[in-house]
Amino acid sequence: MKLVTTRGLAVGQELAKPILNDRGQVLVQKNVRVSQQIIDRLLELGVTYVYVKDQMSEDIVIHSPISEELKIESIRTVKSVFHSYKNKGFKDQSFLYDKTTEKMASLVDTIISQIQNDEEVISLMSDIFISDDYLFNHSVNVTTYAIAIATEMKLPYKQVRELGLGAMLHDIGKVFLPEEVLKKQGRLTDVEFEIIKTHPELGFEFLRSSSDLSVLVAHCAYQHHERLDGSGYPRGIKGKDMHKFGKILGVADVFDATTSDRVYRDAMLPQEGLEILYAGSGTLFDTNIVRTFRESIAVYPNGVTVELNDHRRAIVVRQNKKLYNRPVVRVINENNQVVTPYDLDLSKHLNVTIIGYSI
Asked: What PANTHER family does this protein's entry cite (predicted)?
């Protein structure tokens, strides 16, 4: 199967995987040939990528960092927890005694287990799940990326677990913001942006009162928008005053935000999201964490079509561990001429490089 952007879908292409919502319900079945109406609807729903059937790539296995069932359950739980906290109100700490935190911690344990027992690098999380609110999907994606970074850094399990829980709850402060500001589709005014910038502190104040949560979990909410050079918010602290969890979450948060469709811009591809991080490496983001993340993620996911430096076009077949930008590819076109497909391992052909996407 082949990975394409929803905007690049052509009428008549056949879906290789079903389109699901965050409740696990199938919205568009596998094997459906898409019409323009379906394409328009998928774009309206915010679907960033889809997998389509393709004879030259029918044997390619699409690897997910966590199972579909786990992602659906995680999104559902985050949604339930966030709605519960919102309904109880900012000053109501009765949540300290319910089971929601325990349930979320159990999910984090499962995510850690799946990631740490998987030999594959992390693939793109913003794929074919439709969530009725970006916030919930984003929370699960950031958790997965943060755990992958912490695992690659070989942090102790207790720290990975605290970070994972903090990542799940890093945006909890947003539930206390006005809906009309949080979900505004147009450009925010300066006043509205100042309101948005209060969510890290709101989240911190809400979480730190819990006897069930480590203060580091609360600091994940507090620091995920801080930057090394002091240009972040809410406090404008610099790198030396930031906890490593805040630095990790800053990287994971920006990557998922840039590679997901938003109401105000289209999603970037993984390499483009990494370029944003590298542009801020050493000034906005910790260089070692950016480098670690690069080594943890599939920059060119399985099934994506890429351009090579020698004018060949190819589909990514599988990843080479620790060689993020040198996967095995299947050449399908040479100098704009269709050829009999053949596989090429870029880890063994160092003079051949990927120069960009072709989707």
From this structure: CYCLIC DI-GMP PHOSPHODIESTERASE PA4108 (PTHR43155:SF2), CYCLIC DI-GMP PHOSPHODIESTERASE PA4108-RELATED (PTHR43155)
CA distance 48 to 53: 17
* Close Cβ partners of 48 (under 8 Å, ≥ 6 residues apart): 5, 6, 126, 127, 259, 260, 261, 267
Structural tokens at position 85: 């906290």
Model-level pTM? 0.88
* CATH architecture of the domain with residue range 68-294: Orthogonal Bundle (1.10)
* Residues whose CB falls within 8 Å of the CB of residue 214, separated by 6 or more in sequence, listed in order: 162, 165
Q: Would you say 137 and 128 are in contact if contact means Cβ atoms under 8 Å apart?
A: no
**How far, in Å, CA of 167 to CA of 110, rounded?**
14
Domain range list for the chain: 2-57, 68-294, 305-357
- Tokens representing 330? 């299947």
2-57 is classed in which CATH architecture?
Alpha-Beta Complex (3.90)
Contact 347, 326 (CB under 8 A): yes
Q: Contact 216/162 with Cβ under 8 angstroms?
A: yes
